Q: What sequence folds into this?
C-alpha cells in the first residue's frame, strides 16, 4: 500500500502528569524519540527519575496533557497544575465512562479518553520501561462530541511510542474490558477461594491449569476491586454471560471455549486497511477488532483481523 | 533429621506400557537411573524411541507395571500383554475412581492407582523428557484394601524419578482434581466463549489477564471433555462451590481469592515430618497438603506445609 505525501505538521509538545509505571514509561519513550516532553509528579523521586531520562519537570502543562494518575486523585492532581487553555487532555485509566463523567464537563471537546492496554504487575517510577507500549493496543475514545483533530493529536502520541490505536466509545470500551479484564479477575478469585475451601490436599496437587487460572488475583486487591466496582454494570453483565456459558453441556462449552481461544490473536492474521478520517469509519474499525497504525493526510492506515473480505 | 539404617532390598523391575509423553519419560528416567526397565507400546516408533534410551522392549510385563495408556484403551492394551501373576499394577490416569472400578476387580490388592501431576500440552513419544517428574507431586491411592507393601513399591518408583508422593484415596483425589483441574478448564472455556460473544473489539483489547485465564482451554477439547465428564460428580460439586463464591460481594470475593492465591505454594514453606508406615498416618499427611520424599525402614520422610506446629 503506497501512501500519498503527508503534510508535515510540528508534533505538539506532550506533558505527562503522574510519572509512575505508565506515565514514566510514556515520558521516557517520548524523550527517547526526541519529542518535546515535560512531566510532573507529586513525588520528588519520580520527578528526579524522569528528569534523568530527559523529561523537563514543570507543573505548567500544555499541548497534549496525559493524566496518568489514578482516578480517585485526579481532581487533586488537577488542582496542582496550570493547564494551558488550548491543551488537549487525555488519560490512561482502565475504565472510561467514569473519567468521561469527571473530565468531560471540565474540558469539553478538549478531553479525549484513553487506555493503553499494557502495564505489568509492577508499579511506580522504578517500573519505567520505554518499550512498554511497543505493539500494545491503546484504546482512544471517540464520543459524539470529541474534536477529531484533538483525537488525532493524542493518537499520534500513542503511535509515536509504538502502540496501535483502537477507536472506541467510552461505553463500548467499558463493556469490552469488563469481559476481558474485570471478569477474568473475578473468576480467578472464585477459583482460588473455592479451591482453598476444598482443602490443603487440593492446593498441594495444584499444577499448571490452576496456577494460570488464578495468577491475576495475585494483584493488589484494592486495584482489582476498583476495576470491578468502577465498572459495575458492564462487569455484572459480562459475569452473567459467563454464568450462562457455564450452564451449557460440558462438551459443547469446551468446544466453544476452545474455538474462541484458538481464534484469538494470531498476530499475523491481519489485513491492511485505509480508513477515512471520520468518526463512524474509525469506530467501525475498532468494532471489527482492528487498529490504527499510521496517520495519513485524510486517512489513517490500520488493520482488521483476517485475510477474508471484511471491510471496516 | 537422622535416619536409622534401611535394609537394602533389590528394587523391583519396572514395565511401562504406553511410551507416550508420560510413559516414555518415566521409562527414560528409570533407564537413566540404572533401573531394570522394560516397556511396550502399540506404536513401533514409540518402541524404537524407548529402545534407543535403553528400555528393553517386551509385552511380557512384571514387577511394577505402569499402565500409561488412556483409560478408553486400557482394556485393549491389557489384552496385548502377558502380565506376571505377582505383578504390582499402577497407572497414571487423571481420574482415579473410574480406573479403580475398571482395574480393582481384575487385579485386587495388586492394583495401586497413581497420578503424576505433570505433563505439558505436548504429547506422544516425541515429547519424552526424563526430567518431567522432578519436583512434581505424584498422587498414589491408598484404598482400604491396598497392599501397603505394593503401595511402597510404586512410591519408590515415583521417588526414584524425582517426584514427591501424595498419599490419597481415589475419591479424595478426584474431588481435589475437580477443583484444581476440571473447574479451571471449564472457567477458561466459559471466559473465552463469553468474550467471543462480546465481539471482536473485546478480543482485540484482550491482554494478559484474559490470555492467562483462557490458556488451558487451548488443550485438546476431547481430553478436556473426558477430564470433566469422567469426573462428573466431583466436577459439578466443585463448579457449584465456584458459583457460590461468585455470588459474594466483590470486595469480599477479591480479598478471599487474593489471600488464597498468595498463600499458594511458597515451596520453601515446608516442615519436615516422619510418618509411620500405616494407612491412616499416610493419608493424614496427604490431607494436610504434605508429601512423601523418602522411605525409611518403618517410616517415610516427607513434609507438610508451614513452619507452625501442625502434626500430620
A:
Amino acid at each position: 500500500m503506497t501512501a500519498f505525501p503527508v503534510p508535515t505538521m510540528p508534533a505538539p509538545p506532550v506533558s505527562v502528569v503522574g510519572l509512575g509505571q505508565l506515565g514514566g514509561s510514556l515520558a521516557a519513550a517520548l524523550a527517547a524519540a526526541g519529542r518535546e516532553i515535560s512531566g510532573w509528579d507529586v513525588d520528588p523521586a519520580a520527578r528526579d527519575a524522569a528528569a534523568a531520562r530527559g523529561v523537563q519537570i514543570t507543573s505548567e502543562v500544555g499541548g497534549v496533557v496525559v493524566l496518568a494518575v489514578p482516578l480517585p486523585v485526579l481532581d487533586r492532581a488537577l488542582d496542582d497544575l496550570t493547564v494551558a487553555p488550548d491543551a488537549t487532555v487525555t488519560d490512561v485509566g482502565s475504565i472510561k465512562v467514569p473519567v468521561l463523567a469527571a473530565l468531560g464537563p471540565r474540558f469539553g471537546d478538549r478531553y479525549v479518553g484513553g487506555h493503553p492496554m499494557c502495564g505489568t504487575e509492577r508499579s511506580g517510577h522504578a517500573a519505567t520501561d520505554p518499550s512498554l507500549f511497543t505493539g500494545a493496543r491503546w484504546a482512544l475514545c471517540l464520543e459524539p462530541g470529541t474534536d477529531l483533530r484533538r483525537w488525532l493529536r493524542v493518537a499520534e502520541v500513542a503511535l509515536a511510542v509504538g502502540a496501535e490505536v483502537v477507536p472506541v466509545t467510552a461505553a463500548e470500551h467499558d463493556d469490552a474490558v469488563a469481559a476481558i479484564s474485570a471478569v477474568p479477575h473475578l473468576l480467578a478469585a472464585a477459583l482460588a477461594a473455592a479451591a482453598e475451601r476444598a482443602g490443603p490436599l487440593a492446593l498441594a496437587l495444584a499444577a499448571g491449569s490452576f496456577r494460570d487460572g488464578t495468577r491475576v488475583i495475585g494483584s493488589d486487591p484494592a486495584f482489582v476491586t476498583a476495576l470491578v466496582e468502577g465498572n459495575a454494570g458492564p462487569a455484572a453483565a459480562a459475569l452473567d454471560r459467563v454464568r450462562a456459558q457455564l450452564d451449557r453441556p460440558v462438551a459443547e462449552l469446551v468446544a466453544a471455549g476452545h474455538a474462541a481461544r484458538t481464534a484469538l490473536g494470531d498476530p499475523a492474521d491481519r489485513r491492511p486497511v485505509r480508513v477515512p478520517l471520520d468518526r463512524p469509519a474509525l469506530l467501525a474499525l475498532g468494532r471489527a477488532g482492528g487498529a490504527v497504525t499510521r496517520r495519513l493526510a485524510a486517512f489513517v492506515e490500520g488493520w482488521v483481523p483476517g485475510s477474508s473480505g471484511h471491510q471496516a
